[in-house]
Design goal:
The protein is of the alpha+beta class. The chain has helices at residues 2-27, 38-44, 46-64, 74-77, 80-86, 124-134, 156-164, 235-243, 246-255, 257-279, 298-304, 310-314; strands spanning 87-89, 102-109, 114-115, 118-122, 138-142, 147-148, 154-155, 168-170, 184-188, 192-198, 209-216, 219-227, 285-290, 308-309, 316-318, 332-336, 341-347, 358-363. A six-stranded mixed sheet has the order 8-9-5-2-18-17.
Length: 366
């Protein structure tokens, strides 16, 4: 008898809690985490909150057998915009032909050319083989390394120039005082007529942004290659997360909450810098790279304003682009202006780097 009274009460408290959390996640894209960080945490956990809430709803509906139970669907419905950013529903949209005036585009965080959970073994040969098989016309890379191999004898710039048969690339200014690490690079099979950078901070390390203006058959297109603020976790942090039980994972998240809050705030500042710069761009542009944030985040949704998300246009199912744990999310994006039509979207699930490469085919107006 006691259980019959206690279980419904616990279930009611739980579903009210997930309802409030989902409503918080629903507004996460619109609340600047630099001003209020807690909605950003709820947005981060959105897929798990939604799944838990729906499971609780089914149990609640079965126990209560009341039409009023349907009111608990409202919080889930309120997050439909997050659902569409996170779950691709383009199952009835077939891949289009790629002939004609198209652009094959790839963004890839190569993790310094090391494997996801192995910072010692050189993964460059396998990554170069992948790039060679794809042959993107524009390739944006983050966490890039100029030299790899024992003693740093392998020149990655030369290797990629060879496999893509191009001499066109830009990896930021040579002034290391302004641009501390040249760990971001854009390659193009078309001439680069202009290039530059957006300095997030003089101590920004590998989190930075560059832009290149390419001339594709007489049309100038600007490519923003971005690597927004990361959490900066060491390998030990990922191992701690992977081996922890449920309670341990919550303890870990609480322990590192300040790291998350700082990263949320810094990404907010950085995306505003990029969008402000793009606001004065005289050409159609693409913003792509490693956002280090989820589809329900303020950073991603702020950048998406006035643009098309290639995943939302052509993605299918729940896609992740980060495979390093903690946990795995979609954090790499290709966002384009309406000038472009997204023909295809693909995440290549080859576990080399701690990121999967994203390949998109775009159509330009005739």
């Amino acid at each position: 008898m006691i259980l019959k009274k206690v279980i419904p009460s616990i279930l009611t408290i739980s579903i009210v809690g997930t309802s409030v959390a989902l409503l918080g996640a629903a507004i996460a894209p619109y609340i600047d985490p630099a001003d209020f960080e807690w909605t950003a945490f709820l947005g981060l956990m959105y897929p798990f909150l939604l799944l838990l809430h729906l499971l609780l709803f089914v149990c609640y509906f079965i126990i209560k057998k009341s039409a009023l139970s349907l009111l608990f669907l409202i919080p889930a419905i309120a997050t439909v915009h997050l659902f569409l950013n996170s779950f691709g529903l383009n199952y009835f949209s077939s891949a289009k032909e790629t002939k004609g005036n198209t652009l094959k585009f790839m963004t890839y965080n190569v993790h310094m050319f090391t494997y996801a959970n192995d910072l010692v073994t050189n993964a460059q040969p396998a990554m170069l083989q992948l790039i060679q098989s794809e042959q993107p016309e524009v390739l944006c890379m983050q966490d890039f390394q100029l030299k790899t191999g024992t003693g740093g004898q392998l020149n990655t710039i030369d290797s990629i120039k060879t496999i893509l048969n191009t001499n066109n690339f830009y990896d930021g200014p040579e002034n290391l005082a302004l641009f501390p690490t040249q760990s971001i690079v854009t390659f193009s099979k078309y001439p680069i007529v202009n290039s530059g950078y957006i300095l997030f901070s003089e101590a920004s390390g590998g989190n930075q942004a560059i832009f290149t203006d390419i001339n594709k058959n007489g049309r100038i297109i600007r490519i923003y290659n971005v690597h927004f603020e990361s959490l900066g976790f060491q390998q030990s942090a990922y191992e701690e997360w992977a081996t922890a039980d449920i309670l341990g994972k919550f303890k870990f998240l609480y322990k590192v909450k300040d790291k998350f809050a700082m990263a949320f705030a810094n990404r907010s500042r950085q995306v505003k810098m990029v969008k402000k710069h793009a606001g004065s761009c005289p050409y159609p542009f693409i913003i792509a790279g490693d956002f280090n944030d989820t589809p329900s985040s303020y950073a991603v949704n702020y950048t998406m304003k006035g643009m098309r998300n290639a995943f939302r246009e052509k993605g299918r199912g729940y896609r992740v682009t980060f495979n390093g744990g903690l946990p795995d999310f979609q954090i790499d994006y290709v966002l384009v202006q309406p000038y472009f039509t997204v023909l295809n979207y693909n995440v290549i699930r080859k576990k080399l780097s701690d990121h999967y490469p994203v390949v998109v085919t775009l159509a330009l107006p005739k």
